[in-house]
Amino acid sequence: MANYQSFVSALVFRACLQQVQAGIMGPPNFLEQPRDLSSFTCRAECSKSSTGQAILGHPGTSFCPYVCENGVQSLRLNTEMIQPASSHDPYFSNRKGNFQSKHTSYEHILATGGQVSNGAIAVSSINNTDGVGAGKDSYTQYCGDGSEFPPRSAWVSFENMFNDNKQIMFSSCSQYSQANDDGPEVGSIYNAIQQVAVETKVDHRFILAIIMQESGGCVRVPTSNYGVRNPGLMQDHNGNATCNSDITGVVQNPCPQDVVTRMVREGSAGTNDGDGLAQCINESDKDDVTAFYIATRLYNSGAVDGSGDLCKGIATHCYSSDIANRLTGWVEAPRGCSLDG
Ligand SMILES: *[C@@H]1O[C@H](CO)[C@@H](O)[C@H](O)[C@H]1NC(C)=O
Ligand SMILES: *[C@@H]1O[C@H](CO)[C@@H](O)[C@H](O)[C@H]1NC(C)=O
Ligand SMILES: *[C@@H]1O[C@H](CO)[C@@H](O)[C@H](O)[C@H]1NC(C)=O
Where is the signal peptide (predicted)? Predict the structure, then answer.
């Protein structure tokens, strides 16, 4: 009887293995569950390579059922599922900058330890199956004060969201002409999100959505600067952590776990200079899902437009709409938002 769980891709397996060896948090449950199996190709290393379709495994896994020419099943670590490049590039990157409000309350600490203060929306523990599953990879444009945006009960589960965005993480650095993330680096992003979510009480799905929006999960994303330095995975407000420094010019490969964690912490808990997601959620002054959508606007623009419309203000007009869609399953479908030209 085959051990189907062993058929996860080699890259991801390496990420899990490294985390187990390093004793960092629990290994992520990286079971591959592509939604459209017919779009995946399998490759197996036998004496001659062969290709074919992935099939649904058991329970809830997918794998490449390769039989090599001599009739012996291929070695599992040399079997991988390859997702074809989509016909358009997935949308991400900090194209117009973030203008999080400045704050001065913590003078000497760089990552400021911000936490979501409202118990109704604070999340204190990690639950990887906290949503509806994978949701739908489609895009709906949302505008207004947040009341027309999707309810939290429509959000995907963290585990599905992470697995479904992994393919983008493994390829997003090429947009910046940097080496793409490898398995251990994607594993570091997973560890960092879970750790910082507990520290800040920011829902882990919200942190992941902002990472995908800002950098596609590229650990070597450059610092952008449209008036405020925005370094790192979350393109935070003048933070210190980056694996592609605009100050020293040093690009780190591999990007170490502690730098990845600090990038996520600076974006979520705030920096000495500006707000992170936790402060933005607090400033929304709401105790329902609209807190998150208002927080996205605050993170991107520093303020909500006087009209209250989350599609208005400086920076990226579709920003709040993009995050709402990421939270309900948008990954690769075309970005159906017309407001940013
Ligand atoms: C939440 O944010 C508000 C507004 O910035 C701030 O006054 C408060 O101290 C924050 N609370 C925590 C626990 O971070
Ligand atoms: C995780 O969240 C789901 C959905 O809200 C819930 O049904 C489940 O009981 C939670 N699991 C744990 C361990 O809290
Ligand atoms: C981060 O802080 C260290 C120590 O102060 C400094 O050497 C380094 O240049 C800083 N990096 C960035 C990108 O600000």
Answer: 1-22
Q: What is the pLDDT of residues 201-217, one digit of tens each?
A: 999 999 999 999 999 99
239-to-144, 203, 231, 341 alpha-carbon distances in Å? 31, 21, 6, 29
Question: Got the DSSP string for 30-54?
Answer: -----S-GGG-EEEE-SSS-EEEE-
Give the count of beta carbons closer than 10 Å to the beta carbon of residue 212: 26
How far, in Å, are 245, 305, 312 from residue 308 at the CA level?
36, 5, 8
Average pLDDT over residues 290-312: 97
Q: Which residues line ligand 2 (CB under 6 A)?
A: 127, 129-130
Residue with CA closest to ligand 3 atom 11: 240
For ligand 3, atom 10, which residue shows the shortest CA distance? 240
Instruction: From the CA of 127, give the closest atom in ligand 2.
Output: 1
CA angle at 173 for the pair 45 and 54, rounded to the nearest 5°: 30
C-alpha span between 223 and 246 (Å, rounded): 6
Distance 188 CA to ligand 1 centre (A): 28
Which amino acid does the sequence have at 19? Answer: Q
**Span from the CA of 267 to the centroid of ligand 2 (angstroms):** 26
pTM of the model: 0.77
- What's the one-letter identity of residue 309? D
Asked whether 64 and 236 are in contact (CB, 8 A), the reply is: no
